[in-house]
Amino acid sequence: MKKLNIAQIVSHIGEEVEIRGWVNVIRNHKKIVFLDIRDASGVVQVVGDSSFAQLSPEDVVTIKGLVKKRPEKLINPKLLTGTIEMEAKSFTLLAAAQELPFDMGKEDLGLTLPVLLDYRSLTLRHGKIRSIFKVQETIVTTFRKTMKDAGFTEVQAPTIVATATEGGAEVFPISYFDKKAFLAQSPQFYKQILVSIFEKVFTVAHAYRAEPSVTTRHLTEYVGLDAEMGFIDSWTEVMDMAETLLKNIFKAVKTEHTDILTQYGVEVPKIESSIPRIKLTEAKELIFKRTGRDIRTEPDLDPEGEREMSKWARETHGSDLVFVTHYPTKKRPMYTYPDPENPEETLSFDLIGKGQEWITGGQRINNYEQLVTNIKKWGQDPIHFEIPYLQAFKYGMPPEGGFCLGLERITMNVLGLANIREASLFPRDMERVDIALPKT
Amino acid sequence: MKKLNIAQIVSHIGEEVEIRGWVNVIRNHKKIVFLDIRDASGVVQVVGDSSFAQLSPEDVVTIKGLVKKRPEKLINPKLLTGTIEMEAKSFTLLAAAQELPFDMGKEDLGLTLPVLLDYRSLTLRHGKIRSIFKVQETIVTTFRKTMKDAGFTEVQAPTIVATATEGGAEVFPISYFDKKAFLAQSPQFYKQILVSIFEKVFTVAHAYRAEPSVTTRHLTEYVGLDAEMGFIDSWTEVMDMAETLLKNIFKAVKTEHTDILTQYGVEVPKIESSIPRIKLTEAKELIFKRTGRDIRTEPDLDPEGEREMSKWARETHGSDLVFVTHYPTKKRPMYTYPDPENPEETLSFDLIGKGQEWITGGQRINNYEQLVTNIKKWGQDPIHFEIPYLQAFKYGMPPEGGFCLGLERITMNVLGLANIREASLFPRDMERVDIALPKT
After folding, report:
1. Is the ipTM of this complex over 0.85?
2. Which domains does chain B have, with CATH numbers?
3. Mutate which of A172, A365, A395 to test chain B, going by most B C-beta atoms within 10 A?
4. Residue of B356, B326, B438, B60 lying closest to A399 (CA atoms)
5. Cβ neighbours of A177 in B, within 8 Å
6. How confident is the model over B379-389, as pLDDT tens digits?
7. What is the pTM of this model?
8. Any B CB within 8 A of A434 CB
C-alpha cells in the first residue's frame, strides 16, 4: 500500500493508500466519525467508523483507506484536498496527545501573545502560524540564491567576540571560562574583513541585542541576512544589489505562497519599476511641504515621517518602498563612508516601507588611516579594533559596501504581522527565553 | 574597456581589459616589473614598466592592459591563467598595504598555528588557506540541497537558552539582563520539537561547548549541520539519509574542487557501494580477533579502535567509512531510543572514518511518559525540560530520529587538515577569541 503525503492523495482517487499525521479536528456523529487529518503538506477529511471516536485532537496516527471523490455539493474550495475525502479502513495510534489547553481546530487561534508563546511547541502546529515560517524559509533561500547568482561567497562568521566595540546597542556578556567575552551584535566586522578574502560575501547569522526595552519590533536574538561587496565603483551599486534582492524575495513569496498571502489578507509590496531614492534632507523638506510638519532639524525620520515618505513613494513612483539616503555622519557608525561632496553626510541608506526600516546599508571607509582617525573621533581606542578588524585594512582593502536586513523583520513586514515575536519560531526578548523569565 | 575577473581574461586574448585585485608577488627587474595579481577568481602574471616598482605586496590595484598569449615554453601549467599574461598599460592604487610581517607569495605559508591565527585577516587571503572555505561552502550548500530535495524544511533554532539541560559538555552562561541564560550546546531540542511542526527539518546552526580542554579536534563555537525526521518506520532510515548526504558531499567536493584536493594531496573518502554497519559489541570482538587488543569491556571505541574499524571497512567493504551502531544506553543522551530487543543498547550510530567520528545520530524516544521517566533516570528534573521540549511530546510526537555533523570537523577530515582551527575562519577556543586571551 502506498504511503503518501496528504497533498499527494488528490491524484490517487479510487486507490487505497496510507497517510500519517495528526488529528486536527474530530467530529463524532456516533456511527460515523469525521476527522481532519493534518500533515506537513496539508489537511484531508477522513470518514471512519465508531472505532475512530477514541481518537483525540493532536493524536499521531497512520490511517489506511480509500481515496474518494466528494459529491459536487460537498466540495470544500478552501482545502487543497477539498475535492476528495478518505474512507478509512483502519488506523494505528503512533502517539497519544494529552488534552489540549485550547481548540487548535479554528482557522484563527485567537490567543493572546503570552499564551501563544507559553504553548509555542503546540501553537506552531497551527496551519496559519506554521505558514509564517514557510514564507521565512523562502526569504532565506531567495537571499542565498540571489547572492550566489551574483558571485557572492557564503561565509560563517563567529558570534562570540572578545570586545564590545561596535557601540550603539547594548551587548550580552558571556562567562568565557574565567574570562569575559560577548555575543556579537552583528557580523559587520567579519563580513567586511572577508571582502579582502572573497571580494563579495554573504552570511545568514544570528545576532544579539541587549537593549533593555520591550517593543513590538525588537528581539534580543535575531537572524541577520548580511552582504558585503568589494571593488564597487559607486556606493549606489550596494543599493542596486539590495533592490534586486528585495524584488526577488517579493517575487518568490508571491509565486510560492499566494495561498498564505491570501490567508493573511496581504499582498507583497508593489515596486512598479524601481525604488525611488531621496536624500534625507530632501525627504524632510518634502514632508514639511506635504504636511506642514517640520522635522527639518531632527537627525532622522520619525515613524510618522517614514509613513509619509512611503506614501510619497507610492503616489509619485508607484513603489511601496523608498530608499532614504545620506544620513548624517554623526548618526551612523564610525566605519560609514563620508560623502566627499559633503562630509557631514554619509554614503548610506535605509530602505523604508510601511512606516518601518527594512534594510540598512552603505559604503564603508576602506582606508586604514581614515578608519583609525574615525575610531578615535568616535571616542574609542583603535587598539580594541586592531585584531582582526583593522588588520584587514592595514594590508589593503578595496572600496566596499554592504547591507543587512533582519529576517524576522522582513517576514513580519511582508505578512503584515503585528508583532515581530510572531515571526520567530522561538522568540527571545527581555522577558522571555521560551519560558517567561522570573521578575526580579 | 571591459572589467573582468582574472579567471575570465583567459578567453580575451588580444583584448585590452581592466582587472582589479591585490599584488600577490612583485619581481622587480628594473626596466620591467613582473607582478602576480590576485583576485577571488585566480592569479595572473602582469608585466609592467618601472612605474610598477612602487607597488608592494597586498596593495589593492586596478590594472588596464593587453591580454597576450605566453610563448609555449613560458606556459605555467600550475596557473589557471598560465597560458597568458597581461601587458600592463596603467594602474590605479586603490589602497596601499603596510609592509607584511611575512612572505605571502609562497605556495605554502609555513607558519606556526599561533602566527597563522594572530594574522588571520591576512593569512586567510592566501590561496591555499582560502580554498578550505570554498570547500566548506560546498559542504554547506550540498547539505541544504540534499535535505531540501528530500523534503526537509529549513528552520532557524535559537542559541540563547534558559537552562543548561542537555548535560555532558559544559555550557557558557550569559548575563541576560539581570538574569542568567546559556548558549545552546546544539539545536537538538528545537529540531526535535520542529518535527511536530514540519515533519522533516534541518538547520545550519552555531553551537557552543565550554569544555575546558585544548585539543586539535574541538572548538568552543562550531557550526552544526543538523537534521531530524519524523514518521520513520525504522531507525535505519536515519542512517540511510546520513549516507546519502555524505555521498553527495564527497561527490560535490570532488566535482567542484579537484584542484583543491590536489593542492592538499588528498582524495575524498571512497565508498564503493555502501557504508558497512556494525554493532559496537561486534566491532570490539572484531578488533580483538584482528589485533589481539581487548577493549571488549570498554563502553566505547578508543581512537586506535576507530582506526582499526576504518581499516576493516576498507579491506572488507571498499569503504573508508563505517557506521558503528547500538551504543550502550548509559553512554548516550536520555532521549536516545532503547533497542526493544536489548534495552541496554540504543538505536544509535556514529559514523567513523580516518580514526575520527564524522556523524552521530539515531532514533529518539517519542513517547512522552517514556521520555519523562528517562529524564528522571538520568538524574534530572523534568520540570526544566517542560517548556518547550516536553510540551511537544505531550501533544503527540511521531516516531523520529536525526543526525548531526560538525561543519569544521567534516571540512578538516575531507581535506586532511591537522587541526580543526584551520577549518574555521575565526576559530574560538579556550585560549583565543581572535586575540590570544590573557592568561589568568
Report:
1. yes
2. 2-95 (2.40.50.140), 127-269+354-436 (3.30.930.10)
3. A395
4. B60
5. 210, 212, 430
6. 999 999 999 99
7. 0.97
8. yes
